Amino acid sequence: MPDAYLYAAARTPFGRFGGALAEVRPDDLAAVALTGVLAKAPDLDPAAIGDVVWGNANGAGEDNRNVGRMAVLLAGLPTSVPATTVNRLCGSSLDAAMTASRAVETGDADVVVAGGVESMTRAPWVLPKPSRAFPAGNTTAVSTTLGWRLVNERMPAEWTVSLGEANEALGERFVISRERQDELAVRSHDLAHAAWEAGRYDDLVVGVPGVDLERDEGIRPGSSVEKLAGLTPSFRPDGTITAANASPLNDGASAVLIGSADAPVGLDPLARFAGRGAHALDPQDFGFAPVEAAEKALARAGIGWADVGAVELNEAFAVQSLACLDAWTERGLRDPELLNAWGGAIAIGHPLGASGTRILGTLAHRLRDSGERWGLAAICIGVGQGLAVVLENVG
To answer: Which residues are catalytic?
Structure first.
């Protein structure tokens, strides 16, 4: 089978909940990312795109009716370009990229665009539809911004705890202190700020028309563990997770251009898809799922942890990121500082459906800039799943 390569990546700046991108529809954000990544390949005839695979975790509001196809139409691509939308919650766009790479490897397409979008600000409230018309009682609107909603009563209670409670339990299990979590949060903000200052994101981030936002809106450099120590825990009175050491709610979109070695994109590839992995476990343990997903991806790439020169792990919570990092270090990752060297989601943000291709595009650019051969992108996913991709630098 032919290899699949990552040729280009682009994303919007990530906005805060209710922030600069609050007035922008998710389908418009998706179109911006799609247009942005294709602008990096001006010699590519858009009609040559075999498919667009788009990730989205919500789908309950303006991102409904196959937001991938809406992005194609809003971006002005030929109507002959097909598109689909996939939902693996936080892993949706990484799943989209994995699906796109398989399409190239099987010969189903020479060029595929993968990406994802989320507007957590604009996620609607929903009302359960009654089985009979005009019920006499009251009904409650349910937020679709994040987490469980309209839970099936047959689900065991331990599976449906909040994301925060699940990760408080993970922190207890692995004895991860509040101080370590706050240290990771401070590091995330400082590294993200330094990366922006150094121009690391200049080739990756495209502006949103009509919005005055050049950088990720949530980055707060210059904090300290001492300052964060004064914050109140968010999920347990005596807990360790706060608003500062967990990823925030965000809006944004990201995309990558994927193709075969002979794809008519007019660019040299940045990286080769070398391995993919998916793993699942008990829903409440979702934060630890990237550990085994990464092992599967490394095995399929034919390498070990000692070979890995860059790691991008979506920082859903500092505690789960540290649990994964500790496990990988025990298994041979040569330097913990290889994790999220340009900052992570605690600072940059985590618009659910967009985060997967955000970390994948960042990984490809880190490999290009460092000259390292192998890199890993991984993400935890609510309801007990994890995904991972190994890239080989060919730039």
So the answer is: 90, 350, 380
